[in-house]
Task: inverse folding
């Protein structure tokens, strides 16, 4: 993946100037031990299955649902930023979607189980635009019995 040192000074300044959200309360809560957690992945890598439509610059196009039994060759990255480096994903999908590693952890009993579905969001939207879709995703996670999420900002 691209490092700040690898982008132009102008782009680096722009990226570092982006606001970081603050919270009026503590959004983090405790939960069961890791060995009892049901885990889902949420990534901003712009991933989708081959039979799904690519992410586009669309004000209503926020996320894709990725089945838990997906195979590496079934995923496509349609992140639309021209400067986005896809080479890590092309070599090993676990860089942005570590499902193989999590499957190993579940098999070893390190984590309780994996969700039936995972989620990839489009990073072209401003954080405040995610309110509706984040509530939708939260509902889907709850329906799937998920009690832990691995967030992978790309």
Result:
């Amino acid at each position: 993946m691209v490092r700040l040192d690898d982008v132009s000074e102008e782009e680096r300044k722009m990226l570092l100037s982006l606001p970081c959200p603050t919270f009026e309360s503590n959004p983090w809560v405790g939960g069961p031990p890791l060995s009892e957690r049901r885990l889902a992945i949420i990534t901003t890598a712009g991933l989708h299955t081959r039979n799904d439509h690519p992410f586009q610059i669309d004000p209503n196009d926020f996320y894709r649902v990725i089945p838990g039994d997906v195979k590496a060759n079934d995923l496509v990255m349609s992140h639309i930023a021209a400067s986005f480096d896809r080479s890590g994903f092309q070599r090993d999908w676990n860089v942005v979607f570590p499902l193989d590693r999590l499957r190993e952890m579940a098999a070893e009993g390190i984590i309780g189980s994996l969700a039936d579905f995972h989620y990839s969001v489009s990073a072209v939207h401003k954080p405040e635009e995610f309110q509706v879709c984040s509530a939708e995703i939260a509902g889907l996670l709850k329906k799937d019995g998920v009690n832990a999420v691995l967030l992978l900002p790309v």
Notes: The chain has one domain: 33-152.
